[in-house]
Every structure is written in C-alpha cells, then in structure tokens.
Amino acid sequence: MANGRGCESARWQIAYSQSRSLATSCHRRKFMVQDYLEKILIDEPQLQARIKELGQQISVDYVGKDLLLLCILKGGVLFLTDLMRQITIPHEIDFLAVSSYDKGTRASSGVVRILKDLDNPINNRHVLIVEDIIDSGFTLDYITRLLTARQPASIRICTLLDKHERRAVDIPVDYVGFVIPNEYVFGYGLDLDQKFRNLPFIGVAKSGE
C-alpha cells in the first residue's frame, strides 16, 4: 500500500509539473513578438544615429541655459535615457505622466488625465519636453498649455516619432527624430497593450493585434 501511494504521488507530481510547464510555455507564446510584429520600421542603428544628432543639436541650442528635460511617461523613458547621454551640456530631468488611452485601445479617448505631476517648479527654466510620439497632438497641446501657465523661460518639444498626417491640433515641434506613416507602432518605449516597450527597434503592429 505504501508503495502504491508513493507511485500515485509521484505520478501526480509529474503531471502537475508537466501542466505547469505547458501553461508557462503557452503564456510565453501568447506574448511572442513575432505574433504581433508586421515589420521593423526603424532599426536600432537608425534610432541611435538619429538620437546622437538630436543630442548634438540640443547641446548647441541650449548652451548657457538652465535646461530641464521633461520626459512624458511611460513611452519616453528609453528615448530620454539615450538622448541625455548625447547631450554634452549640464541639464536636469523631471517626469510627467499623463493618460489619454485606455488599455487595449489604439485611439486616444480625447480625455487627458495627469497621473504624475512634476517634482519641482519650472518657472524661469528652459523646458524641453521629451516625447516618444506625436499623432493628433491633443495630449501635447494640453501639456504645453498646462506648463505655460507655470511661467517657464521657454518651452520646446522634442519627439522621437511624428505621425504628422494624423495631426488635429497645430503645435510647433522643434526637434523630430522621424516622421512616420499612419501605422500603429511599438517598441523602444512604446507599448502594445503595455508590453514590448523593451524592444530596441520601432516595429509596426499587425492589423488587429
């Protein structure tokens, strides 16, 4: 009887282990980037080369100024990190988190919510907004109006990606990494339903994903 119970327990443990392994495999498969990626739009060398150029230009334009890089979370984090490495003049950073998209959607809800405000005042400082992507412009228009009321010395915008054909609000953009077509993109900070921000390239999502 003891041996029988031992064999039954061993079989149960093997079955449980196999089911766990299968569940883990299915979970990982569910989020394989190949299942969602239509094509690579901008590869890593292209990204880094353009970011280096932007950093060099910003370094020239802000010599002798109190520069504050204001990153828009969450998508702008990777861009900010690489951009600030290419800026050769002293500067500080701060973060603003906003939301105008609902999880699982690809279109802005049109309602902008502040999720995290700045840590410090910006009056009399030269603020450079660092954004991952601009499309309709509604969110950034709201942000610039909000910040202008706090009396900075200047406000400029630096975006990695500009989906200009979707623009609904006329806002001045001072530094643009790449102008891209009207396709849903992800990677390098941009998410696909909160995933794949870690990819080193910008990819186009398959239709319907």
Keywords:
alpha/beta, Rossmann fold, 209 residues, 4 helices, 6-stranded mixed β-sheet, 3-stranded antiparallel β-sheet, single chain
Count of individual domains = 2
Span between termini: 54 Å
- CATH topology descriptor of the largest domain: Rossmann fold
Which structural class do you get from the secondary structure elements?
A: alpha/beta
- How many beta-strand segments? 9
* Proportion in helices: 25-40%
- Text of the CATH class of the largest domain: Alpha Beta
Report strand %.
25-35%
**What would you say the CATH architecture of the largest domain is?**
3-Layer(aba) Sandwich
The helix/strand order is: HEHEHEEEHEEEE
Provide mean pLDDT, rounded: 84
Q: What is the CA-atom radius of gyration, in angstroms?
A: 22 Å
The number of helical elements comes to 4
The major β-sheet equals: 6 strands, mixed
Poorly predicted tracts of residues? 14-29
Could you say which overall geometry the principal axes of the C-alpha atoms support? globular
Biggest sheet, strands in spatial order? Answer: 4-3-2-5-6-7
